Amino acid sequence: MKKLIIRSFVLIVVSTNAFAQKNQREINREYGRKYEEINSDSSLTPYEKSEKKRELAIKQKQDNIEYNKENYHTHHHNIDYKDERKKDIERKIDLLEDRYKRDKERIDNNDKLNKREKNAQKKILEKDYKSKKDLLKREKENIK
């Protein structure tokens, strides 16, 4: 009886260490195989199968959480996301400026408009440009 308990404990420790060296996909595949073994075991009643599956699910969740703690640095990824988001907004601002310049030149080069109409369209264009640019700047500042 003692030998069985010791062997079980050693098996659990070894399997835990083996999981630590695998990636998350391999860990989940291993648990999938264990679920299949439980399903195919005809000596267990449906209630026993469900109990074993619940226990296995808890262990799987704990292993996945542990793996994520060891292998993922959420703070680091969060910083990368913020930087990427800020760069994306800067690109949008640059595109907005380019579009503003093109539209302004288009208005200037339009011979069908008189000076007053050109100025009116430029003012409308400038207001629209400034509001969109301010919105993007605020969005960039709000990224924390």
Report Rg. 31 Å
Beta percentage is under 5%
Helices and strands, in order, run as: HHHHH
In total, the number of strands is: 0
State the low-pLDDT regions, or none.
none
Distance between the termini: 58 Å
Helical proportion, percent range: over 70%
Q: What composes the largest sheet? A: none
SSE class = mainly alpha
Number of helices: 5
Tell me, what's the shape? rod-shaped
Mean pLDDT: 82
Question: What are the key terms here?
Answer:
5 helices, about 140 residues, rod-shaped, mainly alpha
Topology:
Layout: H1 2-21, H2 24-40, H3 46-71, H4 74-108, H5 115-141
Descriptive overview:
The chain is mostly helical and 144 residues long. The chain contains 5 helices and no strands. The longest helix is centred in the middle third of the chain and has 35 residues, at 74-108. The chain is rod-shaped, with a radius of gyration of 31 Å.
Give a brief description:
It contains 5 helices and no strands.
